[in-house]
Amino acid sequence: MRKAFIALVAVFLINIPSLYYGWYLKWDWIDVILHFAGGFFVAMFMADYLKDRLVSGQWIKNYLIVVGATIFVGVVWEFAEFIANQTLIEPFYRWFGVKAYFMGDLADTMYDLLMDIFGALVYLSLVTFSKHRNF
């Protein structure tokens, strides 16, 4: 769980220079990679956190629980982006001289959530088919 938490903090911290330097506007793939990584590491964190509640051999149920938890985190993140977009753009520009960009349109939000789900499914597939853990 510690590795997943550190990775999630790293993904979050990469957002800071990405916003400051406008990387999201310059390179679309940064958003894709960060959402994929976020989904991957949220699934890793949730699988470890919920390991006592997951049932060995019932991989469909376990997938639904972990992917559902990952989707929940992704939706909360998108709400946070929306709220930041509504409230923080002006203060960021006034205080730091940064023209912040927190979220795109509906298609961008759907694609972000899709990348969160895809990251979670890749993590779960790797865990399922590895010899280290029977999910």
Automatic annotation (TrEMBL):
Keywords: Membrane, Transmembrane, Transmembrane helix. It holds the Pfam family DUF2238. Signal peptide: none annotated. The chain crosses the membrane at residues 5-23, 29-50, 62-89, 109-129. InterPro entries: YjdF-like. It comes from the Bacteria. The keyword Ubl conjugation does not apply. The keyword Transmembrane applies. This is Membrane-spanning protein. The lineage of its organism: Bacteria, Candidatus Yanofskyibacteriota.
